[in-house]
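Lecture notes, structural biology module. Today: joint structure prediction for complexes of two components.
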Amino acid sequence: MPEPIIIREPTVYRPSPEFFDEVFAHGGMPRDYASPLVAELHRLGPEQLASAGRRRDAIFMQQGITFDATGEDGPVKDRPFPLDLVPRILPAEEWTHIKRGLAQRIRALNHFVDDVYHAREIVRAGIVPWKLIVSRSHFARAVHGIRPPGGVYCHVAGCDLVRDADGSWKVLEDNVRTPSGISYVLENRVAMTRLVPQLFQHYRVRPVDHYPQLLLAALRAVAPSTDEEATVVVWTPGSLNSAYFEHAFLARQMGVELVEASDLVVRDDVLYMRTTSGLERVHSVYRRLDDDFVDPLEFRPDSLLGVPGLVRAYRAGTVAIANAFGTGVADDKAIYHYVPEMIEYYLGEKPILDNVKTYLLSDPEQLAAVLPRLDQLVVKPTSESGGKGVFIGPATPAEELEALADVLRAQPEKWIAQEVVKLSTVPTAGVDGGLSARHVDLRPFAVFGETIKIVPGGLTRVAMVPGSMIVNSSRGGGSKDTWVLEDGMDNDRAEPTMAATLPPALPDLQYGSEWSGQQQQQQQSAEDPDIGRDVRAPCARTRSAKPSPLGEV
Amino acid sequence: MLARIAHELFWLGRNLVRAEHTARMLDGVFSADLQGRPDDPNRVTLGWGSILAIMGGEVDDVARVRRDDVLSSLTLDPDNPTSVVSCIGRAREGARTVRDVISTEMWEAINTTNLTLLEGDLSARLRTGPYSVYQYVKERSALIWGTTSRTMLRDEASAFLAAGGRIESADMVLRMLRVALPIQADVEDVGAVRDGQAIALLAAVGGVQAFRRAVPGQPNALPVANFLLYERAYPDSVAASVESTLNVLQRADSSPRASEPILRLSRLGADLEFQARAEGGSRDLAATCEAVQQELARVDQDIADRYFAGAASPGVVTSSS
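The predicted structure, tokenised, for the full assembly:
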């Protein structure tokens, strides 16, 4: 049994018993899977951790991995993306549970989108009220009756998961429009292997860097059939977007063009991009902007970011759009309430991951029950994202809550209320390298092409303010590298067995200083056409010979 | 120009490029080795034993090769002639011999690199984070070649320097291909086993993004091998290296039509081009790589015969002076 090293240190790490700490169990002993990490962190010490942190900031600034945030003193431009150097570890069985739960949820959401724009069976079955669906701001009348190839709408999905005080995983939010953050998952892993490689040495961590390939394969899989490889593009609203780094990252990693609206044009219901050699057909678009802006003819007419006629091309089936138009209806916070019922209705399965208890304020009874308890609940607007407009009851002054109550009474259908989740904590390094508990959530990323594939782990977001539960990057949250461990963890890492087949014998490296000796050899064997086969022979001597006689001068 | 100087420049180029390739390879394998497990198809598995084999070492039992041994012996061990520090050391000695031919800035860039690599704190950095050491070598290498192209007269001297660099580049890439992706014609399922290796290999030569932009398909074993062998648009492919070696030698040679190495190189370049176009790449890549490497060894000998043969050994010259 490893000793509880850190609790003997002067900088005492004390997780609160009120929350679930993912590294230390109650009593300060590291959990089994975390003890090698704790030992290694201890060996590293706060000083080295702090200096690695400074190197990290410098590297991120150099590489331009930055994020615009809103701090206490107003907007902060271009700060290095805050990666905490203490990783978050998910054991294999934990991950399997999450993965199955997510896949199930995404399948159900995909069914729901299909149903909403076609038969509306779930409405007829009396499960989700039609009035609620059509009143969602992301409901897209324009795509009624369109079924994309393979019936896949939610090609890219990211659900926000949290861990409650009892350690159980719950879904806090779905995101099936344009979830962002995957680029940070990949960059975080690269940075970790460079900055603190020693932390990895007792673990076998599942890699994440195949995400771009998964995404590209999915985008190709849903593209309309073509003789050659389908042309895929990433569509960004432009370089001023706060997630532009990610758009460029994905385009670069997939090796496809990053396009803006002005690069795209629709002719005869076919989408093209303008290239130096004329128009080139586009088969598949990974779009990173909201429905509202994509086509001024069908959605917001004042959009300058859109491509006129795109929805028509989409309807004609000449181009695949990921995610499909109209998926926003499924990740609305009011619809969220119904997801467990959707899973049972469409799939006939019990939900693997639970929702957080949610109250729909459009229901007068629930509203009446919520209003007196506002100081114990979280209240969210239904169609916002990124933590905007969220009121956390226990942390909000009484007068603001009174004002909020008036708003809720006036427009109850635009709000939901949720029980406060006691987010789990993970040790997090401060500027001085000392560890303290911070709250975290988890956003895994799924890709739905022919099947649903989920990258091991995901983006762990950390609230950098002690006690705070606001983890959004746009509100000053940080992130952690998330390690999903291989099955059958062993502390003694096995050496790779892959290259067990003996590599072919190669000619030895040559060294210029041996040239005169070689030269004679060469001249002697110049008539021998097979001299190359013999390259080993003249060089065998060089290995024992001194590397450079010039060095002795 | 003096045959001795040409010879020194040729090997200066080779040593610089070898140092950079070794650093890139070690870095690629190190970061890949930190995650995942060998039988995962997504994992990068160019292993430590493979590296030893690439560097021409004897590997009897691949499983016994330990990461830390390989890292330290191939990076900062001055007694190991294949280590990065030895390559840079030889390059520095070579550059010192030809200080009158190369520009002052080049000499300073090479000499500073050598001095920094010899400082003690680098071995501590290698233990805690090898990335920074390899990053340094890569950056310095880019600086040296950048300074060269900016300050060195494009004369015969620069041609021999470049020829050495490009021929070494082709040799290193061929070595990696032969060890990491030994694709043979009789293997039915080329893809499945070696795909992980393919990505590792691309990462190790620094060509992941170039591949993604140039090739629409997945980075599986066969397309990656074809890319590294035939893609002339990628500067570090074998075909591109052969082509530029040919170009610089044609520039340096007073009568290129009578030059053995130039004839060989143009035939090799045409062969590669023909295979890439007419046959869509070779099925038996292992054999092709071996043949190309042998041909390059002959080119190397031809170069020595034609251009350096008139010179006495530089070792003799310096020790007697």
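Point to remember: Chain B has one domain: 3-312.
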